Amino acid sequence: MRVRMTGLAGVIAIAALLVGAAPASAAPGDASAYGARLNVTLLGNPAVNAEPFAAANANGPTQNTFAGVDLTGILKTGVINASASRDDKSGGVHSRASTADVRIDLLSKVTGKISAELVEAECTATQKGLTGKSKLAGVNLGKLGQVNADPAPNTVLDVELAGIKIAEVIFNEQYKNEDGSLTVNAIHIKLLQGVLGSIGTGDVIISSATCGPAGLPIPMASGAGLWIGLGLLGVVAAPVAFVALRRRASLPAA
After folding, report:
1. According to the lineage, what is the superkingdom (predicted)?
2. Where are the beta strands (DSSP E) in the chain?
3. Are the beta carbons of 120 and 135 closer than 8 angstroms?
4. How many angstroms from the chain centroid is the CA of residue 46?
5. pLDDT tens digit string along 70-102?
6. pLDDT single digits (tens) 19-59
7. Predicted model pTM
């Protein structure tokens, strides 16, 4: 059975194959957020590992809420909200995490209780680059000192016991990951292992957002962009279809 294609049919068929084989753009970037994560080992106590609470991701779930964390002697919080989103048209991504009524008892024997009414981290990635910020409201750091409501990136306060640094509290921690994404941790407590004065090891992170880099926009998803794309493919494919028909016509009949 022989099948002949006219020039127009050949153009449409070739265009369809090319569109199916090569997507219009690569997958957009990713974004994620969570309210709190713990991995600490205190002297004389078993390790405490708590998975990220209220984790959200641009791939789903894009929003998450957790009623509150209550780990005696370490951390207590109110409601946690996290969200992550992607704009397929621009390729941009955004993530945000907020934790209410935070009380940190982990360092209370040294600094007194640390508390905050609200702890937020936010991250945005666009074609122009990545940006992040943190916001603190109603903060009480006890003997640790003071920090601005919108602290500068990587603001560090040291925690010392008998003149020995045993921990550090990082506010608005920001760092680039190997994949090019940016992580923003509103509060990150690091317990430092030392010969003297150590109370344990590990990390406590409160309100974290990661995003980017931005993905490629999708200009040919639908509408005029799709027809323009097919038109360009037709311009390229038409000579190929015409040559194929001429060669077919020159063959002797079977």
Report:
1. Bacteria
2. 31-42, 48-53, 56-57, 63-66, 70-71, 75-76, 80-86, 93-104, 114-126, 129-137, 155-161, 164-176, 182-191, 200-211
3. yes
4. 31
5. 999 899 999 999 999 999 999 999 999 999 999
6. 444 333 334 489 999 999 999 988 878 889 998 999 999 99
7. 0.76
